Each structure stands twice: as structure tokens, then as C-alpha cells.
TrEMBL record:
It comes from the Bacteria. It holds the Pfam family Usp. The gene is kdpD. The keyword Phosphoprotein does not apply. This is Sensor protein KdpD. Residues 23-230 form the Signal transduction histidine kinase osmosensitive K+ channel sensor N-terminal domain. PANTHER family: SENSOR PROTEIN KDPD. Its EC number is 2.7.13.3. Keywords: Kinase, Plasmid, Transferase, Two-component regulatory system. It is an enzyme of class 2 (transferase). GO terms for cellular component: cytoplasm; plasma membrane. The keyword Transferase applies. One of its GO terms (molecular function) is phosphorelay sensor kinase activity. Residues 250-376 form the UspA domain.
Amino acid sequence: MAVDAEAARPNPEQFLQLIRRQQRGRLKVYLGPAAGVGKTFAMLREGHRLKRQGVDVAVGLVETHGRAETAEQLGELPVIPPRKIEYRGVTLREMEVDAILDRRPTVCLVDELAHTNAPGGRHPKRYQDVEDLLRAGIHVITTVNVQHLESLYDEVERATGVKVKERLPDSVLAEADQIVNVDLPAEDLLDRLRAGKVYPPERVERAMANFFTEANLTRLRELTLSELAHLIDRRSRRAEADRAPALATDRVMVGLSSRSPNAPALLRKAARLADRLDAPWYAVYIQTPAEDLTRIDAATQRQIGKNLELAQQLGGIPMTFKGPDVASTIASFAREYEIRVIVLGKSRQSTWRRLMRGSLLEAVLAKTDGADVVVVDV
């Protein structure tokens, strides 16, 4: 059978991506549903196994949180001394990125990937420090809990009643070379909590009354397994796509205005929808004459900027698109960028509900052709 060499040859962008991946370090993530399931323990055990095999392993940062059994696991692993920062009368330990880059271990162990750094560091977030290590060719093994994924913020809050402050972009996990699920039944984790193996005794009662309930832990385990299954499926589909000729893909857009209700929740839902479709997506600020910057106060302008920044963190492409009215501008963007899915938000606020029931939704449907319109509850 004759083979078309041109059709089988990877395109230049694919080849460049392969080169970059070879130059970068590899990222392995121990993913769990909650603190205390054993992620750090598992990471340190792997560090010891690699060291016994002759691999140059160093600890960039490990958070023991006073757990004796975790501290014992450090054993003889070489630790790169952390940087100490005085902040509001408290001495904080942060990863010393420059020292790690100078030391250049083959593998670096870095705990709590979603951690927010103290002011004055190289980056605001630890995952950004880890990206510096990966770019330098250092392999990283790290840990994270599922509730720290940005796109799950609203779902975790609804399920547990807790607003998770430390979050990281889903793209960080999606780019990991290996993800290992560290699981523990809710009953066993609660037993560990009562025994003081997760938090100090003075924090146990409050933890069990709030975040660490059996219902919450069960839901977080479900989210972890679901996220892991999706990541594995996505990786499989992308591997198939790399072997096959490139095909046209769906594109998703979500329209925003200064009056968009609960825009962050809308963006997270759009991001997860696009991720499930394995499709690029756009967060489009629809700038009509009513949205002219001369008519919008500074606080509203800052919020628009934050929304577009969040879209970028979630893997979307933030854009501003001008037009005479919302519906026709959405339709124009959809035609120009060949959008197949348009996401609109439906709020519980009465004014937006009336708007969605009436002219806006109907006008978008009337003006678009060949695109599905998805209305999500935010």
C-alpha cells in the first residue's frame, strides 16, 4: 500500500512542541481529594526509591505540618534550605528557586503545588516556581488536592460550603506527564484526623465540623476520580490526534459584558465545557456603545480586566470585540472565528433572568447559524 509521506509527516508546530518537551523537565503529580490522604508521604517514598537507584534527588520544599511520620520520611534525602521571610510578625518558609537552579538536581520534590508564596518572592504562586524548574530541565514530583483546581472552585463551594483560596490553573495539571491518585476512604481519613495525624489536636474539632465531614470527603473523592478519568481520556485522545491528520475542531466562546452576573462562575463552566470538548475557547468582552469605557466607572473596568485575566488562567483566549449591540456582536464574532458553541449565563437575578428569557437569547439564536447556544446556570 502506498503511503502519502506529506500526510503522515507531523506539521512544524507539532515538531517544535516535541523539541520543547524534550528540553523541559517532566512533571509528576500526586493528586488527592484532601489533606492527610498520604500524598507527601508517597512523594517522599518515591524520592527515596529514586535515590537508591542512583538518581540525584533533592527536596525543594516539603510541608510536614507537624506530622511526625511525614518528617521521618525525609530521612537522608538532601534538602535545599528554604528561604525564610518575615511577614506580619511570622517567619515563613518558601522554596529557594535560585538555589535549586544552581544545584540542578535531576529530580526535585516540591510539596503543595497550589501554595501562594509570601510577598517578595520570584513569583506569586508555587506552581510558577515549578515551571521555572521544568524550563531548566529539572524533573519535578509534586502534590496537590483536587479542590485547588480553578475550574472546580464553584462546584467545591457548592458541595462543601468552603471557598478555596489557593487555586491553580487546570492547564498545570493537564500538562503533567504523570498523575497518581492517592486515595483514602473517608472513614479512614477521619480516623487519622481524630488521631492527630492530619492537624494539631486544637484544629481537629473545627475541621470535622466544617470541611472534613464524611459527605464532603466522599464528594471530593468522586471529583478526584472524575478529574483523573477525564485527564487520562484527554491524553489518549490527543495521542490519537498526534498520529492522525489534523482535523477541524470545535471552538467555544463565552460572551461577557460589564453587567455579566457572576462572570467568574460563567468562565469556569465555559472552561470545563471546552475542556470536555477538547476545544479552544474564547472569553469575549462584548463592547457595545453602552459599554464604552467613558461610560463605565474605574471599579467596573478593573473587574472586567480581572475576568479576562481569569479566562487566560483557565486556558481561554481573552478578547474584546466591538459592535452595535450584544446579540449581533456575538453573532459576528461567531462567524468570524468559526465558533461552534456559544455559552451564555442564566442568573438567579431577576433582571438577568428577564433578559435571558426575552430578547438576548432569542436574538442570538436568530442571528447565529451553525452554532449551538448553551445556557448555563450560574
